[in-house]
Design goal:
heterodimer, A: mainly beta, six-stranded mixed beta sheet, five-stranded antiparallel beta sheet, 59% strand, globular, B: mainly beta, four-stranded antiparallel beta sheet, 11 strands, 0% helix
Chain lengths: 116, 111
């Protein structure tokens, strides 16, 4: 069964601290993996996208890793800020890069709260 | 910047009403999607369209229909709204091999 599982379900950290969110997937065939940030009451916004051949990608204080062998990804947030409080969702695209890759398999997200 | 605009942020409708949720994108994307998002269930795909006048059922199409008469516009229709359709509705558009860009969401309450 094609699934994306995220952990932890929720996380509370102090401002300035680092944290790492996990994503495990069982999606085949694998096309790419994205991390989205979703603020409360808003639509998701893309942070990073990684294909099979990429194992790390950064976007400012966000760094995503991908291990295609173990089918695991992580999102590391450095020096957290209050504005990082949001839900972080891992999404795996099922399908081939050159073909019709419309199928997105969504995780349930990790809810992050950054406290002062 | 890609812009995906949903017609309403908040809607309150009565049971049995016909409800239209509109979504417009400005990037000439072929693919458009309607999701609903509920606590503990994540995003679930209702319908998607890969071209004008084309539509395909997603994972939970029951109780919904869609219309795509123009490339930039994708409408979600609740023929007879029910309380279990109270949810956050998210529209997204996507090019051939790009990421999906989302609208700001419509929080629909059916009373």
């Amino acid at each position: 069964k094609n699934q994306v599982e995220q952990s932890p379900q929720s996380l509370i950290i102090l401002e300035g601290k680092n944290c790492t969110l996990q994503c495990n997937y069982t999606v085949s065939p694998f096309s790419n993996l994205r991390w989205y940030k979703q603020d409360t009451g808003r639509g998701p916004v893309s942070l990073t996208i990684m294909t099979f051949s990429e194992n790390t990608k950064s976007n400012g204080r966000y760094t995503a890793t991908l291990d295609a062998d173990t089918k695991q990804s992580s999102l590391h947030i450095t020096a957290s800020q209050l504005s990082d409080s949001a839900s972080y969702i891992c999404v795996v695209t099922q399908g081939y890069e050159a073909g019709n890759n419309r199928k997105l398999i969504w995780g349930l997200g990790t809810s992050l709260a950054v406290n002062p | 910047d890609v812009k995906v605009t949903q017609s309403s942020r908040y809607l309150v409708k009565r049971t049995g009403e016909k409800v239209f949720l509109e979504c417009v994108q400005d990037m000439d994307h072929e693919n458009m999607f309607w999701y609903r998002q509920d606590p503990g269930l994540g995003l679930r795909l209702i319908y998607f369209s890969y071209d004008v006048k084309m539509k395909e059922k997603g994972d939970i199409p029951e109780g919904y229909s869609v219309s795509r008469e123009k490339k930039e516009r994708f409408s979600l229709i609740l023929e007879s709204a029910s309380t279990n359709q109270t949810s956050m509705y998210l529209c997204a558009s996507k090019g051939g091999n790009t990421e999906a860009f989302f609208g700001q969401g419509t929080r629909l309450t059916v009373v």
